[in-house]
Amino acid sequence: MTENGDPYENAIADRVNGILKEEFELCERFKSIDQAKTQTIQSINNYNMLRPHLSCKMLTPDKMH
After folding, report:
1. What whole-number distance in Å separates Cα of residue 30 and Cα of residue 39?
2. Cα separation of 18 and 11, whole Å?
3. Are 21 and 27 in contact (CB under 8 A)?
4. What is the pTM of this model?
5. 48 Cβ neighbours under 8 A, 6+ residues apart
6. Is 26 within 8 Å of 39 (Cβ atoms)?
């Protein structure tokens, strides 16, 4: 998951994946691949546009960027 082989970057990816699974319920079973894809896209958009982050001074990633 890292671009330059830095193992510390995996921690960031694991954290994001954990948030998507727990807060946005991506760990549940879906009836179809299409349903899973739709839910994943929606969750990522919510994560970036609606969820404020402490590391972004309580802004959303979209606003911080």
Report:
1. 9
2. 10
3. yes
4. 0.67
5. 60, 61, 62
6. yes
Would you say the C-alpha torsion 2, 22, 52, 49 has a positive or negative sign?
A: positive
Cα–Cα dist 51/65, whole Å = 14
Q: What is the pLDDT of residues 1-23, one digit of tens each?
A: 566 777 777 887 888 888 888 88
Q: Where are the domains of the chain?
A: 8-64
Q: Exposure string (b/e) for 28-49, b if CB count within 10 Å is 16 or more? A: eeeeeeeeeeebeeebeeebee
User: What's the pLDDT tens digit per position in 13-52?
Assistant: 888 888 888 888 887 888 999 998 998 999 889 888 888 9
